[in-house]
Specification:
The chain is mainly β. The protein folds into 3 domains: 177 residues, Jelly Rolls (Sandwich), CATH 2.60.120; 225 residues, Sandwich (Jelly Rolls); 91 residues, Immunoglobulins (Immunoglobulin-like, Sandwich), CATH 2.60.40. The chain is 0% helix and 44% strand. It contains no helices and 39 strands. Strands 3, 4, 6, 7, 26, 27, 30 and 32 form an 8-stranded antiparallel beta sheet that branches. Strands 8, 10, 11, 13, 18, 19, 20 and 23 form an 8-stranded antiparallel beta sheet that branches. Strands 9, 12, 14, 15, 16, 17, 21 and 22 form an 8-stranded antiparallel beta sheet that branches. A hairpin with a 4-residue loop joins strand 1 and strand 2. The radius of gyration is 33 Å and the shape is elongated.
Length: 530
C-alpha cells in the first residue's frame, strides 16, 4: 500500500495483492496469502508465518517463548539457524558450539523455529583449551547467576529433551567448576543431568554449602523411564527459604530433597555457591534434541508445558476497494489446523466454514469498513463466518482481523492459508462540476454546479487543513463532512483566519451512498482589516 500525496488516499500496490474478476458479474476479489503473501497483515501478536505446512506460507500461532521475564538469567532458544549462530538472548552468557551441531526443522522443534540437534558422533568445542561438549556456555557478565564466586538463592533450570534413544551415560547437560582453587579446600563442583537405566537423574556435588564451608552431595532421579523420540519437559528448582530442591518431568514431581543436615525441612540450609572457571556443557555423548534451555533467578511455581499461547491476533492495514461505498459481499478463506508434537504433523485442511476444529482449535474473523483510511470506529468491528454473505459492510476501505485459539491440549494451532475478499464497487453518482471557493473573514463561500448524473440526490461537502484529509474539522456549519442536501452552495463559517483549507464535494444517491470526490480546491480566510 502506498500513499498518494495529491489525493491523500491509500493506493494498493500490486506486489501486495492480486485482484481478479472471476467471482461473478460485477464482482471483484482481492487475494491474500498463498503465493501473494501476508505483507498486508503485518499487525501481529502471538502469530507468525510458517513454511512447509501448505504450498505457500501460512499464518499460525507462534510457539516462541517470551523472554520478557525479569527473572530470566539464561535463555537459549536455538532459533538462530545453526550451531554457529546460537546465542543466549539475555546476554549474560557466551555460547560456543561445535560446527557439527545442527538446527532442527521447525516442525521438529518444541518451541519457536528450531532446536539443537546432537549426535554422540558430533565434534566438540575446542577454543584453545581441552576439547569439551558440542555446546559450552560460560558466564560473560559478573552479574550472571552462574558467575564465579556468586552466592545464589532461589533458582530454576528448565529445558525440553527429545532423546533419540536412552543409552546409559548420555548427558543432557552438566555444570562443572572448581571450588576453593589454590587452597587446601580445592574441590570439583558439578551438577549434571544424565541417563541411567532409561531414566534421567541429577547428580550434584560440592554445589550446596553450609556457613562452615561444609558441602553436601545430592542425587535426584525420575521414577518413570522416558519415552524415546518424544519431547519431555525437565525442571530442577530450588527454594532458598526452605532448602527444598525438586525435580519435575512434564510438570509431575519425580523426586525432591532438602539441603539441610537432616535431609528434612528445618535447621541450617546449605545454599549454592558458584565455583571458579565454571561452564555448562550441553549434549555430551547425547543423541537427540534439546530446546528452550532456561535458567531463572526464582523458584518456578508452574512449568509452562503448552506449546502455544492462549490466543494470538493478526490485523490488516487499510485495504482499498477502489471506490467509496463499495460493498463487501463475502470473505472466503482457506486454512486448517495441525499438531506437530514429536515432529509428527497431523494436518486438517478446510476451504471455508466456521474454522472450528476437533480438539478446540479455532479462528474467529472480524471486519470493519470506512470511507477514510484514517478514521476508524473501534466499535465498528463485526464478526463473520468465511463464505457466508455479508451484504451490509460498505466503504472504500476495510480492515480484517483474525483471532487464533489453540486446541485444548495447547499442542494444536489453527492456520490461515488464504483469504479472498469478494466485493462490488458501487456505481455512485458522479461528483458535481466547477467547484469554486471565495474566502472571507472567518469563513469560505463554496459553490458548484449540479452533477450531470440523474441519480444524484444531494451533496456532501468535505474540508480540512491538509490536502485529502477532510475528516474531523469543525465550524459553525458543522464538522466535516457536511450534508447540504440539494443546495449548490454553502457558507462554512467560524474558520481560523490565515489557515489554508482544502475543499471537495461529492454527490450521493437516494440511499445516501456517496460517490467520488470532486476536484480539490483551497482557500484561506483572512481578516479584512489590520
Amino acid at each position: 500500500m502506498i500513499f498518494c500525496a495529491r489525493t491523500g488516499r491509500l493506493v494498493l500496490a500490486s506486489m501486495f495483492m492480486a485482484a481478479v474478476s472471476a467471482f461473478g458479474l460485477g464482482e471483484d476479489a482481492l487475494k491474500f496469502g498463498g503465493k501473494v503473501g501476508w505483507k498486508q497483515f503485518g499487525l501481529r501478536y502471538g502469530v507468525t508465518e510458517l513454511e512447509n505446512v501448505r504450498a505457500g506460507k501460512v499464518l499460525a500461532l507462534s510457539s516462541v517463548e517470551k523472554s520478557d521475564d525479569g527473572s530470566l538469567d539464561m535463555a537459549l532458544s536455538f532459533d538462530e539457524g545453526g550451531g554457529e549462530f546460537f546465542i543466549d538472548s539475555t546476554g549474560n552468557y557466551k555460547l560456543l558450539a561445535s560446527g557439527m551441531v545442527h538446527a532442527a526443522e521447525t516442525a521438529w522443534a518444541r518451541f519457536g523455529g528450531s532446536a539443537a540437534v546432537f549426535s554422540s558422533a558430533l565434534g566438540t568445542v575446542d577454543d584453545g583449551e581441552a576439547a569439551e561438549a558440542p555446546i559450552v556456555v560460560r558466564a560473560r557478565r559478573p552479574g550472571a547467576l552462574f558467575s564465579a564466586g556468586h552466592n545464589i538463592g532461589d533458582f530454576s533450570i528448565e529445558f525440553w529433551l527429545y532423546p533419540g534413544g536412552m543409552e546409559n551415560g548420555e548427558e543432557a547437560l552438566s555444570w562443572t567448576a572448581s571450588v576453593g582453587a589454590g587452597t587446601d579446600t580445592y574441590k570439583n563442583q558439578s551438577l549434571s543431568c544424565t541417563v541411567s537405566k532409561n531414566r534421567t537423574e541429577w547428580s550434584i556435588k560440592n554445589f550446596f554449602f553450609a556457613p562452615a564451608a561444609e558441602s553436601m552431595d545430592l542425587r535426584l532421579a525420575a521414577s518413570d523411564p522416558l519415552v524415546p523420540k518424544r519431547w519431555s519437559h525437565h525442571l530442577l528448582r530450588f527454594d532458598a527459604g526452605t532448602g527444598l530442591l525438586e525435580y519435575l518431568v512434564n510438570g509431575v514431581l519425580e523426586d525432591l530433597a532438602y539441603t539441610t543436615p537432616s535431609g528434612r525441612e528445618g535447621g541450617n540450609i546449605f545454599l549454592p555457591v558458584i565455583g571458579e572457571r565454571g561452564s555448562f556443557s550441553l549434549g555430551r555423548r547425547f543423541n537427540g534434541m534439546i530446546d528452550n534451555f532456561r535458567i531463572y533467578r526464582r523458584f518456578v511455581d508452574e512449568a509452562g508445558l503448552g506449546r502455544y499461547p492462549q490466543n494470538g491476533r493478526v490485523q490488516s492495514t487499510p485495504i482499498d476497494l477502489g471506490a467509496q461505498n463499495s460493498t463487501v459481499l463475502r470473505v472466503d478463506a482457506a486454512g486448517g489446523a495441525y499438531n506437530t508434537s514429536g515432529g509428527n504433523r497431523q494436518n486438517i485442511s478446510v476451504h471455508t466454514g466456521d474454522f472450528k476444529f476437533q480438539g478446540g482449535a479455532q479462528i474467529q474473523f472480524f471486519i470493519r469498513a470506512s470511507d477514510s483510511p484514517y478514521r476508524w470506529n473501534p466499535a465498528a468491528w463485526r464478526t463473520f463466518t468465511p463464505g457466508e454473505p455479508l451484504g451490509t459492510v460498505r466503504g472504500r476501505y476495510i480492515e480484517l482481523a483474525a483471532r487464533f485459539y489453540p486446541g485444548g491440549d495447547s499442542e494444536t494451532t489453527p492456520y490461515l492459508e488464504e483469504i479472498d475478499i469478494v466485493f462490488a464497487r458501487k456505481a455512485a453518482p458522479e461528483p458535481p462540476l466547477y467547484l469554486k471557493a471565495a474566502a472571507k473573514d472567518g469563513g469560505v463561500e463554496l459553490s458548484w454546479r449540479s452533477s450531470k448524473d440523474e441519480s444524484a440526490a444531494g451533496y456532501i461537502v468535505y474540508y480540512g487543513t491538509a490536502s485529502g484529509d477532510y475528516f474531523g474539522e469543525g465550524s459553525s456549519s458543522g464538522p466535516s463532512p457536511i450534508d447540504v442536501g440539494k443546495r449548490l452552495s454553502v457558507s462554512i463559517d467560524s474558520l481560523t483566519n490565515g489557515i489554508l483549507y482544502y475543499f471537495s464535494v461529492s454527490s450521493y444517491d437516494y440511499l445516501g451512498r456517496p460517490g467520488d470526490y470532486s476536484r480539490e480546491i483551497s482557500a484561506r480566510p483572512l481578516r479584512m482589516t489590520e
